UniProtKB/TrEMBL annotation:
Residues 2-56 form the HTH lacI-type domain. Transmembrane segments: none annotated. InterPro entries: Cro/C1-type_HTH, HTH_LacI, LacI/GalR-like_sensor, Lambda_DNA-bd_dom_sf, Peripla_BP_I. The lineage of its organism: Bacteria, Bacillati, Actinomycetota, Actinomycetes, Kitasatosporales. It comes from the Bacteria. Residues 3-32 form the HTH cro/C1-type domain. GO terms for molecular function: DNA binding. SMART domains: HTH_LACI. This is LacI family DNA-binding transcriptional regulator. It comes from Streptomyces edwardsiae. Keywords: DNA-binding, Transcription, Transcription regulation.
Length: 336
């Protein structure tokens, strides 16, 4: 069995530094922390969770609440969950995965028992019904997502409002004046899911500032639903030359339908996506996109929670700045 001392020797640090990386009780430089975490992974080191729990009166378990809904893109949710589990393990915690749509009942169950030391919540809505319970309990929690009111909460998320604005700016700089947004499934907006609503707010606000026409249409995804949505968009706004897609399952159907209609990308229309990097680079036309930083979101959420568990963290909102990667799907607007 690999020992903590062996990890320290492999990483070229002291045993106490490894201990601080695992516990989060002291601030460690990013480079040192990453070196220690890499040694932990390569050597397969596993802290004795049972001994740590007895010593600290903790379970050394983090509850991760991931409601798996059919209208959400599950691969992104799972990528975040894997990042949470991997980072938690590096800090000596295991993860209890709760995938049901239990709402406040799940929070109540975790908060009222010794199941977990803290909670990480995903699929956050603007007026999430879990939040009043979170504010009442002394169980530390972190949200991956941003509600309307963040008072008394710790949140980690991509800055989706800035993401929407960035997509509009990119198309506007290339001369596009009429932009259509192909959004998530209608149920996502009906629930007022934070990331979707905030993206739309950023899109609309920047388009208004720049004097652009912007049309938003939710879409279930898939070929048939995309065909209906695209037909509606082009019927209502036939001069549309720019598309922003925030629905991974609509990306390839959109590109296929544009080809069938003889609309070349990017010569006739430009497409910008808000999606995982893998979706963007594997599409039939490599997509200009803003990537969803799933791994970073999961890692930051765990680090925020560990800090709170160790009495070092306060309530704060951590927003990741969006980065747009230029690829083959966007270009100048066609001359009229």
């Amino acid at each position: 069995m690999v020992t903590l001392a062996e990890v320290a020797q492999h990483a070229g640090v002291s045993a106490s530094t490894v201990s601080y990386v695992l516990s989060g009780k002291r601030s460690i430089s990013v480079n040192t922390r990453q070196r220690v975490e890499r040694s932990i992974r390569e050597l397969g080191y596993h802290p004795n969770a049972g001994a740590r729990a007895l010593a600290s009166s903790r379970s050394n378990i983090i509850a991760l609440m991931v409601p798996l809904r059919t209208d959400m893109y599950v691969p992104v949710m799972m990528e975040i969950a894997i990042a949470v589990a991997t980072t938690a393990r590096a800090h000596g915690y295991d993860v209890l995965l709760l995938t049901g749509e239990e709402g406040p009942d799940a929070v109540r169950r975790v908060a009222g028992s010794g199941l977990a030391d803290g909670m990480i919540l995903m699929d956050v809505e603007l007026d999430d019904e879990r939040l009043p319970l979170l504010r009442e309990t002394d169980r530390p929690a972190v949200l991956i997502g941003l509600p309307a009111d963040t008072a008394g909460l710790t949140c980690v998320d991509l800055d989706f409002k800035a993401t929407g604005a960035l997509c509009v700016e990119h198309l506007a700089q290339r001369g596009h004046r009429d932009i259509a947004v192909i959004g998530e499934a209608p149920a996502v907006y009906e629930r007022h899911t934070g990331f979707a609503e905030r993206t739309l707010d950023g899109l609309r606000g920047r388009a208004r500032e720049l004097g652009l026409g912007l049309l938003h249409r939710p879409c279930e995804g898939g070929y048939d639903a995309m065909a209906v949505t695209l037909a509606r968009i082009l019927d209502e706004r036939p001069g549309t030359t720019g598309f922003v897609v925030q629905n991974e399952s609509a990306v390839e159907p959109l590109l296929a339908l544009l080809r069938q209609q003889g609309r070349a990308v990017p010569e006739d229309v430009s497409v910008v996506a808000i999606c995982p990097e893998q979706v963007a680079v594997q599409a039939s036309v490599r997509l200009t996109s803003v990537a969803i930083p799933a791994q970073e979101m999961g890692r930051l959420a765990v680090e925020q929670l560990v800090a709170k568990l160790d009495g070092r963290g306060g309530d704060e909102v951590v927003l990741i700045a969006p980065e747009l990667t230029l690829r083959a799907s966007s270009g100048p607007a066609p001359a009229r």
